[in-house]
Each structure stands twice: as structure tokens, then as C-alpha cells.
User: Fold these one by one.
Assistant:
Number 1:
Amino acid sequence: MTEPATTPAERIHYGACNLCEAICGLEFKVRGNEILQIKGDTADPLSRGHICPKAVALKDIYEDPDRLRKPMQRIGDQWQEIEWDAAFDLVATELAKAHLRDPDSVAAYLGNPSVHNYGVLTTSGQMLSPIRTRNRYSATSVDQLPHQLMAYWMYGHQLMVPITDIDRTQYFLVLGANPMASNGSLMTVPDFRHRLKALHARGGRMVVIDPRRSETAEVADAHHFIRPGTDAAFLLGLLKVMLDEDLLRPGRVAAFTDDLDTALDAIRPFELAALAAHCGIDEQVIQTIARDFAGADGAACYGRMGVSVQAYGSLCQWLIQLINLATGNLDREGGMLFTEPALDLVNGPAGSKPGSFGKHHTRVRGLPEFGGELPVAALAEEIETPGAGQVRALVTIAGNPVLSTPNGRRLDAALDSLDFMVSVDIYLNETTRHADVILPPTCALEHEHYDMIFHHFAVHNTARLSEPLFDKAEGTMHDWEIFQAVGKRLAEKLGQPARAMPRPQQIVDLGLQASPRKLSVKQLQATPHGLDLGALRPTLPERLVHADKRINAAPKPMFEELLRFGETLRDVMPASAGLKLIGRRHVRSNNSWMHNSHRLVKGNARHQLLMHPDDVSARGLTDGSTVRVRSKVGEIRVEMQASDEVMPGVVSLPHGWGHNRSGTRMGIAEAHPGASNNDLTDEHFLDGLSGNAALNGVPVEVLAV
Ligand SMILES: Nc1nc2c(c(=O)[nH]1)N[C@H]1C(S)=C(S)[C@@H](COP(=O)(O)OP(=O)(O)OC[C@H]3O[C@@H](n4cnc5c(=O)[nH]c(N)nc54)[C@H](O)[C@@H]3O)O[C@H]1N2
Ligand SMILES: Nc1nc2c(c(=O)[nH]1)N[C@H]1C(S)=C(S)[C@@H](COP(=O)(O)OP(=O)(O)OC[C@H]3O[C@@H](n4cnc5c(=O)[nH]c(N)nc54)[C@H](O)[C@@H]3O)O[C@H]1N2
Ligand code: SF4
Ligand SMILES: [Mo]
């Protein structure tokens, strides 16, 4: 049979993947609306052809029959498709009603894909700003809040996060991060594996500190288990050895750094033996790492989820900064450097707000604001607790807090009590099932993209603008169109003056032109594989944002935090004490929302609880059986796998699972439900300084069913 003459021609399209922080360049082969192939774009100057299995699932998301394409209204437990205009009117009317009662009675939660999506970044404010609520939440406070707080306090801007110069470092010390699975975080590093090979080839070393022998630990030169939540002791131990052995040489940054000696003086009194006993890493090991780090020709200390999302997250991030700074590895090739992105939110007229801390607090528990947002661990109680400022209406954008935030069950129940909830989301999932209205935007392949955030954290300076692969389907709306439509109606109903509503592309173009490199959308459109803007390089003191162009090595609150931590050093965990729960990520899973892709969930289940064989036998449990895991806040049942990947006393469970709740519409995910880690995490277990959730190191018991 001959092909019908109307068969569209095949075409090749280049665009960046926006699923994770690695922002890989992709090459798509398509015919009409059919994706024939997705591969890595070898001409991308940052990712150089790297791709992971999730990128191929972009096709599944695009084609997914469960993905929502038209607005939905919930009447009781039934969903009805409605027209866009009717949906916008309904949402604006309800939000205006709530606002007129009390602006703070409306809360907003922005989830992780928001920062991977320039429509949300540039225009969600056009919908939210008329509401003028202080109840703003996001995934930041279950994630990188401590990094941003330290960046703000020490370098003057919440996005001034120093980045590992992985392509030149000789000694890479990694705490609580698993870039082999995550592809890097606050270190945009596509193709970690090859960059590590190159590090080894030039004689460099990588040392990993993690309670689990992770995929990254497997390829490290050395891996040391650490008791969850005790990294501050290890980091203090490193500094203590460096101080005692006179190994610290801050070098040129000393000329523009304040109070480094004051900070180091506060660390001097700690005793190495006590620190070592607390974290479970031998004194000799700490000494060796300290000497190797200080002696390396370019060293970088980097810590991610395992050390930021724990009870001393902010202290850990501060100590990491001090180690890099005091050894002369900050702002040095082969150490930690700051990026110079094409659209520069740190410097110049395109700049965003540098940050703020503690300007206001949550109503019920008094947790501090950061950068205009409150810690999401407080959201459920803000909904449940009556009084002025009680949250009665909620907007969620690209978030699934029921599975992502501590004590998700409590939030799950609280959402049911709201007067009104609207979700801008592409799925009917564990969170959005509580909404009254869901407004689904187009998916990633149907709109343009420029990564406004992750170029700030990339190991090499590049810029890349992606044109849409497909035109949006008829009757669908881009997220920015949704935000503008609701924002316009809301302002009208509230009698607020009409605002200018520029489109994402105009905002990005202005931002590019106003940044030091003075690029434009037009220039980026002409370079579909992206522009190479050069290796990272020293940029201090010019790039510092503090008016005096100086580094503040010793933010005052850190001294109190140090004392608070010192108090805990006495409680060395006896061998018989309970288990500690930690999280993990897998290269074929992405937070809570990519489990509806058949190709990502096929094969062995990846949501088991990992438990050390000694802990399994001590409890008379059977490998492979379903167990009960109980914490202060809840209990789940999940399949357990005995594994010496985790150290004794530690159990590891990925988050984002638990797709077995009624009323969701994700057929494949529902067939591979798993259990939610955040049914166990505790909304009162926090990094005490920042209010960031402590999702690692949660005390649990494991029992037979
Ligand atoms: N226990 C534990 N909990 C954790 C973590 C952990 O390590 N352990 N990690 C934390 C971290 S680091 C993060 S970032 C959070 C993530 O937490 P969240 O951001 O709350 O959740 P996600 O799982 O990313 O869910 C994303 C939502 O966005 C929707 N979505 C996807 N693409 C789009 C889009 O283009 N537009 C719109 N409007 N919606 C879209 C999806 O359908 C889904 O509902 O989880 C945190 N929770
Ligand atoms: N494939 C995939 N990639 C992703 C994601 C995903 O879900 N899937 N999510 C993306 C997101 S939102 C983020 S924020 C990043 C996160 O990126 P990473 O932080 O690199 O990823 P995690 O796997 O969470 O790594 C945390 C590590 O900390 C360890 N750990 C737990 N507790 C402790 C502790 O107390 N101390 C120490 N030292 N280690 C501890 C865990 O065993 C784990 O190996 O990944 C991003 N990339
Ligand atoms: S590593 Fe991240 S950005 Fe790269 S292809 Fe995979 S999901 Fe996409
Ligand atoms: Mo994250």
C-alpha cells in the first residue's frame, strides 16, 4: 500500500528539556503531531548531547489522555468540563469575594514546575498580585530555602548561590546529594557522569557523605555513612581540624570579607572527638578529608537535599560556605564560582528582589517569612485555625503539596474544609482533586521556554531559547493567558486600576537587554542550540550585591544556631535507638507527577522502603514483605527491601508516591501507587532557623503487618 499523499513530512526541532535543573538540549524528530524520536542535542554547549529517560516521557505527557485540556468544575464529587470564560469568571468572582472579606484569607502555593516554566515565572504575579495576600507559599520551604537564606545574608542576593566549578575542581566533597540520579541541583550539571570521568582523568577525587550508598557514592573515590541530621558536626569537625592544623588560607577574598575570624573563633571551642562521635564518622577520616580538601589545587564542598532539608539545614549551608571561603576556594577556578547568566536576575536593571527575612510571620506558629513567602509546613494549621487571617481560599499553581509537604494527610483533610480552591495544573491528582475549579495550561512542548532560573546555577554560562515544538491544540490556553485572564477580571471586580500585562516573551526580551550581556530574544532565536557564554570565572567583589561590596561571613543568627546545635552534641544515639527516615530520588521518577508515564513506571517498583539487613532481622521482618512504618504523625504500609545500601538505623523511602486516593484521574500512576513519605514527615520538625521542613532524619518505627 502506498502512503496517503497527505502524510506530513518529518521535521527536526531543537528545544530544551524543562523537567529538571539540568536543562538538557533535545532533538525531536516529528511527523505532524506525532513524536517519532527524542534524543540529546549534541550541539547544546551545556548538555552536549546528554539526555535521561524522563525526557523521552515528554512524549507521554503530551499524548497522555489523562492530561487535562479544558477547565473543569467540581460539583460535589463530579467533574464537569466548562468553557474558559465561565471558568475565569467563576474563579475571579470567588477570589474577589474572599479578598473583600480579608486579603490574607486567600493563600497561594506554587510548586516546583513553576520555576521550570517561564509563563508562570513571568506572569503568575499578574493573577496573584491583585489579591495582596501575605499567605504565599511554595516548594522553596521543602527544598532550597537554607541556600537562598545564606546567599542573601552572605552575598546580598537570594540567587547568589556559589556553584561548583566541576570542570576544573580537583577535590569534590559532596554531602547529601545524588547527582547521578537527580542530574544535579543548585548545580545545573547535565551529564554528571562524563564530567566526573574528566575529573578523575585529571587526577581529581570525589568524596561522598551520605547515610545511603547512593548511585553517586558508587562512583566516588570514597563514601562515608553519616547519621542523618548530623552533618553540622562533620562540617564543624572539618573546620576544627583546619583551624588546629593551621590549614586555612582565604586568599584574595579576605580583602572584602567581614567577620570571618569571628565566625572561626566561635567554632574553635568544639571538640573533634565529640563531633566525630555525634555524626558517626571517625576522627581520622575527618582529619584526612580536612587535609586533602585544604591541600587540593581547587576544592569544592557542596551539599544538597540531604543537608538542606534537615533539622540544621541553614547551619549546614553556612558551614559549607565557610569551608569554601576560609580555604580560599570561593570565587576561585576549581572551587566555587558565581554565574553570569544572560538574563541576570542578580545584577543590573533586570534584577529581582535580593530577598528578605522575618518581615512577617505565620499567624498561628510565628514561622518567618523569606522573600515574601511563608514556610509551607504551616499551611494546614493556617487553614484549620479560626480567627482573622484564617485561610479560606487557595490557589495552587503547578504543585502537589498533599504529596510533597510534611504531614500531607493533615493538609489533604484541611483542603476539604476550604470555601474555594482553584488549581492551575495539568492533572487531576492528590491535591487538585480538592479544587473547585482546575484551569489546565498547555504542556511544555506547546509553548516557548527560556530558563530564567537555572542558568543562574549552571556549571557553564550558556543561554538557550526554545520555540514550541507544536502549536497549542484548539481550545487550549497557555498558562500566561490563564493568569492574565483571571488577573484582569479580578482587578475589575476589586476596582483596582488595570495593570500592564506584558507577555512572557516581552518580559524575557527586556530582561535580556537590560542584563550586562545585552542579548535579545531575536539573537537567541537565531541560535536554536543555545549560545556558549564561556566558563565560570571569578566575579567578586564586583558581583556582590551588598552595597559595600563585601561578604558577610558571620550573619548574626548563625551564632545562636551554633549554640543550639552544640546542645545536641551530648545525645549520641545509642545503637538500640529508633530508626531515622530519609528520602531518595530515582532517575526514572520526578517528584510526584511523572508516574503516569508507562515507560517510567515499568519494570521493578522503585518506591520500596530500603532497610539494613541487621535492622530487618532484629525486628523479625521478612525481606520483600509489606511493613508498617509509623511516625509521630502517621502510618503507612509499604513493601520493604533489605539492603546494605543504607546504614544500620536508617530507612530510605522516596517521596511523591501514594497515588491511591479516591477521585484522582491518573490511570497509570494509580496502578503503581506506592505510599507517601510525607504521610510520615512531621510539620513541626523543621530547620529551626528558616522554617524549612526537615524531611530527612524523621524518627520512625517499622513493624510487621
Ligand atoms: N519527603 C520528601 N518530600 C519532598 C522532597 C523530598 O526529598 N522528600 N522533595 C521536595 C522538593 S525538593 C520539591 S521541589 C517538592 C515538589 O513539590 P511540588 O512542587 O508541590 O510537587 P510536584 O511533585 O513537583 O508536582 C508538580 C505539579 O505540577 C503539575 N505540573 C506539571 N507541569 C506543569 C506545568 O507545566 N504547568 C502547571 N501549571 N502544572 C504543571 C503536576 O501535575 C503536579 O501537580 O517536593 C518536596 N517534598
Ligand atoms: N530523577 C530525578 N531528578 C530530580 C528530581 C526527581 O524527583 N527525580 N527532583 C529534582 C528536584 S525538585 C531536586 S530538589 C533535586 C534534588 O537533588 P539531590 O539533592 O541531588 O537529590 P536527592 O536524591 O534528594 O539526594 C539527597 C541525598 O541525601 C541523602 N541524605 C538524606 N539525609 C541525609 C543527611 O542527613 N545527611 C546527608 N549527608 N545525606 C542525607 C540521601 O540518601 C540522598 O542520597 O533533584 C532534581 N532532579
Ligand atoms: S536530565 Fe533533566 S533536563 Fe536532562 S533530559 Fe533528563 S529530565 Fe530533562
Ligand atoms: Mo526540589
Number 2:
Amino acid sequence: MCEIMRSLVIISLLCYWVYMETHSHKSSISVASQSTEGTLFVNGTAAIGFMDDDFVCATIDWWPPQKCDYGTCSWGSASLLNLDLDNSILLNAIKAFSPLKIRLGGTLQDKVIYQTEESQQPSTSFLKDGSELFGFTQGYLPMSRWDQLNIFFNKTGAVVIFGLNALRGRTINSQGAAVGAWNSSNAESLIRYTVKRGYRIHGWELGNELSGNGVGTRVAAGQYASDTKSLQSIVQNVYAGFEAKPQVLAPGGFFDENWFTEFIHKTPQSLQVVTHHIYNLGPGSSGDLIQKILDPSVLDGISQTFKSLQSLLEKSNTPAVAWVGESGGAYNSGHNLVTNAFVFSFWYLDQLGMSASYDTKTYCRQTLIGGNYGLLDTNTFVPNPDYYRLVHIDHEDQEHS
Ligand SMILES: *[C@@H]1O[C@H](CO)[C@@H](O)[C@H](O)[C@H]1NC(C)=O
Ligand SMILES: *[C@@H]1O[C@H](CO)[C@@H](O)[C@H](O)[C@H]1NC(C)=O
Ligand SMILES: *[C@@H]1O[C@H](CO)[C@@H](O)[C@H](O)[C@H]1NC(C)=O
């Protein structure tokens, strides 16, 4: 375990070093042909954190082709509802990790209805509508599609975390808060169906970006804790008789010290993983993204979040561990030719190393495919530079262990 961490930290440090070298020459292109001697000291006597063996994780989202940001529509057919599961590059790209953790979710997960035996299939899913929360109408997951996805994940050896709709049953009040208890009945039906079919789910996660001030809307921490307990008891029930039960993850939102403190104190036994999201570079539209990615002080800015969450978990009477459940650097789908290009590795490797050093167990990159920050190209499925970096880290680790 600590080998992975060390190699990540080392690569991260090397990144910094290479950056410092290139930066000091005030040139980014000619430096490639120069060589500079340097000494890097890595203190390998004691591990500073431990992470899961399958630390590497990537996301697949729900965004439909009509999702556009700043005039560009970068999602193509990368949604859980329309991704081409017969594509052999996709299959092999996931297989190469065996196992790759894949977290299924994102903004629109809190608007998805799962097909049940009784339900009438609506004729539409996720229509663009500016008057709707998150800009789209409700989505619908037919069980035939859920079957295809599970068969695909089984074939690729992926470890799946599924993000459940946490807004069911709540109403949005005049202050924009989602109030009332979570109605778990549709989620329970999906979980029962999944178990009946023998599909393996590693974790069930409740909600997306509803913590703290939320994105679009928010849910109070006390209410969220009680809903998380409901999810835990559903999982205990449905998986009764299974030796290994799936994990319960929540809240999948941005770290907010007060909200997370209350939430963690109120969910001591019902939660295995505290998930949080990171978009520390601002919007995908910002003109200075590359400068930010290459500025160590910008990259370090997020370390306080890792530190605060780590100390909160240490102080609390909880067995829960921390994961980064979604992280794409620049929000609103990233930026073409930046967050899918070589330069983004400086941010990504730094994140992997930094999060590991604060005891993060798993780090989910937004996205495996889709938007401008995919590890794979949205249209061709061909790996982007960050994908190769990951494969390298993963294989290096396997050689050590
Ligand atoms: C390396 O880390 C260990 C444990 O934290 C510490 O005791 C030791 O002084 C460090 N060595 C150096 C050379 O910094
Ligand atoms: C795939 O399904 C088979 C049969 O149910 C099961 O034995 C195997 O563990 C599954 N593999 C994964 C990676 O989920
Ligand atoms: C929860 O939702 C279902 C429909 O999915 C509905 O039949 C049920 O009455 C709801 N439960 C509560 C407590 O509102």
C-alpha cells in the first residue's frame, strides 16, 4: 500500500522539480533540450498515509449530448444512458487497470428515476429546460440499460460505485433548500433488482453536491445523516446473508467544515466512506487555467481541505475514511486542449500525491470519458495524456507488490 503512495508522491515531487527547473529558465519549449542536474531527497523511512490498493478511480456521468458550457457541447455520447459499451478501446482501457474503480454519478443523478416493475416508461429523458433545476428535466434509467452497464462492468473487471438520487421526496423551499426526508423507495427497488440479478456493486453513494451551500440546492446536515442511516439499513436488509456488503458513501459534495462536522458526528456507524469533490482551478472558461496548473501555490491552496477533513475524521468516533469522489480540476466540463492535454498532468499528479499524503483512500477523476477532462477522448475513445500517466503508476505499483 505505501509503495503506491510513495511512487505517487515521488512522481508528484518530480513534477514540481521539473516545473521549477523549466520555470527558472523562463521558457517552456527550449528547456526540453537542456538538461539540469538536481538532487531529490525522498524520505522513505516512514509512511505518511495509507491508501486503498485500487486507489485509482474515474467517473462516468449522466450529462446528455445537449449539455453545453460557454458555447461548447463537450459530452457527445458519454452519458451512462448512451455510452457505446461495445467500443473495444473503452473495454481495454478499463481492463488495463483491473480493477479500476468507477463512480457512476454527477449533477443529474439527483434527477434520475429507476425503472420498476410498476412504473410506466416516460418517452423522454433529460430534456434541456432552463427553468428546471440543473437545466434538464428528469432522467430515466431503464433496467435493460442497467443490465447492459453491469454486464459491461463485469467484463472489464471494474469496481462500481453508484450514486443514488438523493432528492427523491424532497421539495425545494423559497430559500432554495431541499427540505423533507429522502424517499428511498425507488432506490431500494434498484438495489433489490441489482441483487436479484447478481450484479456486484462495491458502494452505494447518496447524493451529489448537496452538502454545505450545495450546487443548485442543498440538504441540511442533520437530515442528510438520517437519510444516510436509512440507506445503510436498506443495504443491511437487502444484502442480509451476504458476507461482504457494499459500502455506504456520502455526501459526495464540497467540503464545508460545519456541515461535514455535524454530518460525521451524526452518522457514526452508518457510513463507511466520506466523499468530497474538488474543483480547485475555478471555471473551465477561465483564461489563466494553464498558469494556475503550473503554479505550485495555486495547487497547494487545496491542501487545507484535505487537512481539515483528515483531522475531523481523526477526532470523530467514526470508522469512515475519506475519498475524493469526483475531481475534474476546472468545473463546467473543463477546457478543451487544457484539461485533456499534457499540461493537466501537473495538476493531476499533484492531486494524487497530495490527497494520498492526507490519507485519502481513493481518488475519482472526473471523468473516465466525457466533458473536456476525460482520461479518454470523448469522441474517439483514444487515451489522453493523463490516462497514460495513470497506467504507468498502476503498473509500477504492481511490480513492487
Ligand atoms: C525521515 O522521517 C523520519 C520519520 O518521520 C524522521 O524521523 C527522520 O528524521 C527523517 N529523516 C530525515 C533525513 O529527514
Ligand atoms: C462477474 O460475474 C461473475 C458471475 O456472477 C462473478 O463470479 C464475478 O466475480 C464478476 N466479476 C466482477 C469483477 O464483478
Ligand atoms: C415514496 O415514493 C413512492 C413512489 O416512488 C410513493 O409511492 C410513496 O408513497 C412515497 N413515500 C412517501 C413516504 O412519501
